[in-house]
């Protein structure tokens, strides 16, 4: 995985402030700039051979360990979701809220579906 290039893309296109597409992941809200559309094919290619993303279920703890930062993992999740490469799966998606949702999120239950073509 080209960690440096992934960090460059997330730094360039993902922010805590708008404008852009708002992606909410439990208690984390990030904006993906509209210009990010130009990097969709590159990001898809960067992740194409990563088993973790190909099969789905990559959680922020595991991806954070690979990238050296859980913050970068969340930015990558937001970027991919805004580019329609995957869905971000959170406790809220299952209808869970409150303490149960917080516990699940803390244990890594913020993850992505498999990468779409």
Describe it:
A hairpin with a 2-residue loop joins strand 2 and strand 3 (28-32). With 117 residues, this protein is α+β, with helices and mostly antiparallel strands. The strands form two sheets. Strands 1-3-2 form a three-stranded antiparallel β-sheet. The chain has a three-stranded antiparallel β-sheet with strand order 4-6-5. Helix content is 45%, strand content 15%. The model has no long low-confidence stretch (mean pLDDT 95).
Number of helices: 6
Strand adjacency order, main sheet: 1-3-2
The amount of beta strand, in percent, is 15-25%
Query: What's the count of strands?
Result: 6
Q: Low-confidence spans: pLDDT under 50, at least 5 residues? A: none
Structural class: alpha+beta
Fraction of residues in helices? 40-55%
Averaged pLDDT, please?
A: 95
Describe the main β-sheet briefly.
3 strands, antiparallel
Form type: globular
Element string (H = helix, E = strand): HEEEHHEHHEHE
**Euclidean distance between termini CA atoms:** 18 Å
Question: What is the C-alpha radius of gyration, as a whole number of Å?
Answer: 13 Å
Compose a concise summary of this entry.
By secondary structure, the chain is α+β, with helices and mostly antiparallel strands. 45% of the residues lie in helices and 15% in strands.
